[in-house]
Write a structure and sequence with these properties.
This protein is of the alpha+beta class. The protein contains 4 helices and 7 strands; from the N terminus they run H-E-H-E-E-H-E-E-E-E-H.
């Protein structure tokens, strides 16, 4: 990406997502190695820089458990429950939802630099930066894959070989 174009988009209200920042940080790479062993699953990192007074993404849910670490500025988060039983522990991320579809949040919280938030897989969420300050946060995702479908996908082939 060309830096001048990236900053133009940012100044026009677009968020910047940095995929796999551990590629550029030995400390972050080491942290992920420790978390992989601790959780017993693959972990990953993304970083998000959001201009003041904007929302980076529409309401959505992810197919991984997410740990949010706010490193600069502040963000107002809204966490909604699942829309229905079928989306509980979804194996896929959702598309975008409208505000009408998600309804009232079950939790609203402001994250400031140094704050931490856990978002379980399949929980719809959205976040807005404060009107007077940008936001930079890091998300660590843990790919637990602990549904019955995941269990059966691993165990049936083993059982058939026995």
């Amino acid at each position: 990406a060309e830096p001048l174009k990236v900053w133009k988009y940012f100044n026009d209200g677009c968020s910047i997502r940095i995929l796999r920042p551990q590629k550029y940080s030995k400390t972050m790479w080491q942290m992920l190695s420790v978390l992989d062993q601790f959780f017993g699953c693959m972990t990953g990192v993304n970083s998000y820089l959001t201009p003041a007074g904007t929302q980076g993404f529409a309401p959505h849910y992810d197919d991984v458990d997410v740990f949010v670490l706010q490193t600069e500025g502040a963000k107002h988060w809204k966490i909604h429950g699942n829309l229905n039983e079928e989306t509980t522990l979804s194996r896929y991320s959702s598309g975008n939802f409208t505000q009408e579809e998600v309804g009232d949040p079950v939790l609203e919280v402001d994250l400031h630099a140094g704050d931490f938030l856990y978002l379980p897989r399949s929980f719809i969420h959205q976040a807005n930066s404060f009107p007077d300050q940008h936001s930079f946060h890091i998300t660590v995702s843990a790919n637990f894959r602990n549904t019955w479908a995941d269990f059966l996908e691993k165990s049936i082939p083993v059982a058939l070989q026995s």
